[in-house]
Design goal:
Strand order of the largest sheet: 1-3-2
Order of helices and strands: HHHHHHHHHEHEEHHHH
Shape: rod-shaped
Radius of gyration: 57 Å
Distance between the termini: 74 Å
Number of strands: 3
Length: about 525
């Protein structure tokens, strides 16, 4: 009886335990499902913010294009205005010269007109004298030939007492008549000379009048041209003012759009931080198996090798495998894109991709060492289950508590941070963040400037390698691996212990931010660039 009772209790316990296990499993699955739903909602929010960001960027780009076009128009209009002003100045100088010539012509005409008046007076006097002399001669002739006159010249001759007296009187009378005729001839000659001079002066007057008319015509033409050019200048200056007003309007609109961009970036960063927190919480509940090989295309092999070279070209072979391991672990993780290229090109993840270095290496071809490392991780080789890596400087800056140093890179699975002391001043934090951001930007800029020389040197070095050198290199790399692994700050057992805890190890979502976010546009939120280095 007692055995039956014990057996019944045992059966009831097993049934109750089974139902409890099933209940907890169902509850766990429901929790994971709810977490994934929240992640999907947050991702939808991020996608919407990214869409708004793209639209804002397109609007900024369009406005910048319009502004550049307006600035080009301003430059052209300024040149046109200067040219028109030069033309007006030239016309003004010509008008001044014409005014001087017109004034001189008017003075010459006045002088010629005065001379003509004088000649007319002289001609009138000569004509008057000639007429008077002619009238006097007529009277004398009349008195000579007129009959019956007591004082006639014939009578004077007839009354001569002797022939000698007759001859004397005749010669006297003949001399008077001859004198009158000579005077008449002189007056007529004088009239002829005056007439000739008058015609010459009148010809000069006609020429001067014609010249003055030509000058007046040129003056009117230049004045009309000046007025036309002044009108063009006024229109140009009006257009210039309009274009400048456009530029001012574009600048105001660009300023407003810049503020909108900053707001969108802040909202996107907050949403990405929330998504990172949600993913971290889910990963803390169940650790995914990211091991195994991956059937990659030739392009994926090239992209993976190029990224390894861009991030870890100066690192040991183990360091190169570490970078490749992070990429392949992400490919295998549900928190990241499921392809090699998708992981590499994920927004705000690999600075070497954003800077263009990866694609440049692809164009020139990655070196043989990085291709070998890429092929090994594709075949399943891993140096750890790490999902993140960065330089030690950034790991300490973000307060990552658990990481493994391989060469110059800190590798870790979860973003686990230690809280900063409360006494630490917020302003100091901001200054440190700014300094870190500036340092990272400077490093990226230096990396861009040096990448051509680095890749050329790498290609030359790899082309010169032979089989013996590769063997020696592998030996040295294995030795370096041992030295690097001695620098591990926590053991794999400690990390596994952390991963098995219920609370996920105290991940800091504010620091994790965009490392686990997907498909965001270009942003300036530097705290999310957590896997930089190499």
């Amino acid at each position: 009886m007692r055995r039956k009772l014990l057996l019944g209790i045992l059966l009831l316990s097993l049934v109750a335990g089974r139902f409890s296990f099933v209940s907890r499993a169902d509850e766990f699955d429901d929790t994971i499902s709810q977490m994934q739903e929240r992640e999907a909602q947050t991702q939808a929010t991020i996608s919407n913010l990214e869409k708004q960001t793209r639209e804002t960027k397109n609007a900024i780009s369009a406005l910048q294009g319009q502004k550049e076009e307006a600035e080009s128009n301003v430059s052209e209009l300024q040149n046109q205005s200067s040219s028109l002003q030069s033309t007006i100045n030239s016309y003004s100088n010509k008008l001044s010269s014409l005014n001087v010539e017109i004034s001189e012509a008017e003075d010459a005409l006045a002088e010629v007109s005065s001379e003509i008046v004088e000649l007319n007076d002289e001609l009138f006097k000569a004509q008057t004298l000639e007429k008077e002399r002619y009238e006097l001669l007529k009277k004398r002739l009349k008195s000579t030939y007129e009959s019956g006159g007591t004082s006639g010249l014939v009578r004077v001759l007839i009354q001569s007492g002797s022939f000698g007296e007759f001859l004397t009187k005749f010669e006297y009378l003949n001399a008077i008549v001859k004198y009158d005729r000579n005077k008449i001839a002189e007056y007529r000659q004088l009239q002829a000379e005056i007439e000739a001079k008058k015609k010459e002066v009148e010809k000069r007057e006609e020429e001067l009048n014609k010249y003055q008319d030509e000058l007046d015509e040129k003056h009117d033409e230049l004045a009309q041209l000046t007025d036309t050019v002044r009108g063009q200048l006024d229109a140009t200056n009006s257009s210039l003012s309009s274009e400048r007003n456009k530029i001012a309007d574009y600048e105001e609109r660009l300023k407003s759009l810049d503020e909108t961009m900053k707001s969108l970036e802040a909202k996107t960063a907050a949403a990405q931080a929330e998504l990172a927190k949600q993913i971290a919480e889910r990963l803390a509940m169940v650790k995914e198996d990211t091991s195994g090989s991956y059937s990659a295309t030739a392009d994926e092999l090239t992209w993976l090798a190029a990224t390894i070279q861009a991030e870890a070209d100066g690192e040991s072979y183990t360091g190169k495998l570490g970078v490749g391991s992070v990429i392949m672990n992400r490919v295998k993780s549900s928190a990241f894109p499921g392809t090699v290229i998708g992981v590499i090109t994920q927004n705000m993840q690999f600075a070497s991709y954003r800077s263009g270095k990866v694609e440049l290496i692809i164009e020139n071809g990655p070196n043989s060492t990085c291709v070998r490392a890429a092929q090994e991780v594709l075949d399943g080789a891993r140096v750890g289950d790490y999902l993140f890596f960065m330089t030690k400087y950034w790991a300490d800056y973000y307060g990552i508590t658990s990481y493994t140093m391989i060469g110059n890179h800190a590798f870790f699975y979860r973003w686990q941070t230690a809280p900063k002391p409360e006494s630490e001043d917020d302003d100091d934090d901001d200054e440190d963040a700014d300094e870190a951001k500036d340092l990272h930007e400077e490093n990226e800029e230096d990396d861009k400037k040096a990448r051509h020389d680095d890749e050329d040197d790498d290609e030359d070095e790899n082309d010169g390698d032979n089989e013996d050198e590769n063997t020696d290199e592998n030996i040295e790399e294995e030795q370096q691996e041992d030295a690097d692994l001695e620098e591990v700050t926590i053991t794999d057992e400690e990390e596994d212990s952390d991963n098995e805890t219920d609370d996920g190890g105290g991940d800091d979502p504010e620091s994790e931010t965009d490392e686990e976010s997907q498909d965001s546009e270009d942003g300036e939120y530097e705290e999310v660039e957590i896997d930089m280095g190499g």
